[in-house]
């Protein structure tokens, strides 16, 4: 077996052993090559290790097992319109694009938006679009969404995002102070309101209001 093939097998094995068991999620993560979203340089050869890695603008590409568990919790259906807040490298959005009808991903740093969109274009992912926007306000012009995934930590689930979730819809969001342990929360919109489930401790960069200064 080639080195790459072996590393990919280990990658999938690590995902399974950390609790990523949903077949559709594993298939999507097998198809989307994390190496396409990790910048070249110092950390390029660590793309298939289960660890977060630095990307431009002082941000991080999340740990693969956390990407898998969040995607699994979101329970995306083939007809869904999905919003991701925090494009970063575009890796998570590319995985969502394998599972959903349409994915909008918003990011406050222009450079990250441009690089992610270039990756989507190069890989021929036509149902995912990266946009420069403050995701704490959601994306009113495309609302409501069937699923919302926030990949930066908020102190509370942002009100505009709750408002843009369709009835029956699911939002997964890390909640807590940026330098403390955060909890991954699953919010389900019911006919009467919202249900909250606490999933697991996580650690994400903070959700910051407004656009990045460049
Ligand atoms: N999902 C990414 C990793 C996200 S890191 C991936 O797969 O690589 C979190 C990202 O959220 C950072 O890029 C950060 O700039 C962005 N972010 C933080 N606050 C934001 C906001 N209010 N609106 C949009 N993006 C935000």
TrEMBL record:
<comment type="similarity">
    <text>Belongs to the methyltransferase superfamily. L-isoaspartyl/D-aspartyl protein methyltransferase family.</text>
</comment>
<comment type="function">
    <text>Catalyzes the methyl esterification of L-isoaspartyl residues in peptides and proteins that result from spontaneous decomposition of normal L-aspartyl and L-asparaginyl residues. It plays a role in the repair and/or degradation of damaged proteins.</text>
</comment>
<dbReference type="GO" id="GO:0032259">
    <property type="term" value="P:methylation"/>
</dbReference>
<keyword id="KW-0808">Transferase</keyword>
<protein>
    <recommendedName>
        <fullName>Protein-L-isoaspartate O-methyltransferase</fullName>
        <ecNumber>2.1.1.77</ecNumber>
    </recommendedName>
</protein>
<keyword id="KW-0963">Cytoplasm</keyword>
<keyword id="KW-0949">S-adenosyl-L-methionine</keyword>
<dbReference type="GO" id="GO:0005737">
    <property type="term" value="C:cytoplasm"/>
</dbReference>
<dbReference type="InterPro" id="IPR029063">
    <property type="entry name" value="SAM-dependent_MTases_sf"/>
</dbReference>
<feature type="active site">
    <location>
        <position position="62"/>
    </location>
</feature>
<dbReference type="InterPro" id="IPR000682">
    <property type="entry name" value="PCMT"/>
</dbReference>
<keyword id="KW-0489">Methyltransferase</keyword>
<dbReference type="GO" id="GO:0030091">
    <property type="term" value="P:protein repair"/>
</dbReference>
<dbReference type="Pfam" id="PF01135">
    <property type="entry name" value="PCMT"/>
</dbReference>
<dbReference type="GO" id="GO:0004719">
    <property type="term" value="F:protein-L-isoaspartate (D-aspartate) O-methyltransferase activity"/>
</dbReference>
């Amino acid at each position: 077996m080639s080195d790459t093939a072996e590393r990919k097998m280990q990658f999938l094995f690590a995902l399974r052993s950390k609790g990523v068991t949903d077949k559709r999620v594993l298939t999507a993560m097998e198809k989307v090559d994390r190496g396409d979203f990790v910048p070249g340089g110092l950390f390029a050869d660590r793309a298939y290790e289960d660890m977060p890695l630095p990307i431009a603008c002082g941000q991080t590409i999340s740990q693969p097992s956390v990407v898998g568990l969040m995607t699994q919790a979101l329970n995306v259906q083939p007809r869904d319109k999905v919003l991701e807040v925090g494009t970063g490298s575009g890796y998570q959005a590319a995985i969502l694009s394998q599972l959903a009808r349409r994915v909008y991903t918003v990011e406050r740093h222009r450079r990250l938006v441009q690089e992610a969109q270039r990756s989507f274009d190069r890989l021929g992912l036509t149902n995912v679009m990266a946009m420069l926007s403050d995701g704490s306000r959601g994306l009113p012009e495309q609302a409501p969404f069937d699923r919302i995934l926030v990949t930066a930590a908020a102190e509370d689930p942002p009100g505009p995002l709750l408002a843009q979730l369709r009835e029956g819809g699911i939002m997964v969001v890390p909640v807590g102070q940026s330098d403390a342990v955060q909890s991954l929360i699953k919010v389900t919109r019911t006919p009467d309101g919202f249900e909250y489930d606490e999933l697991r401790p996580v650690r994400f960069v903070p959700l910051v209001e407004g656009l990045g200064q460049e």
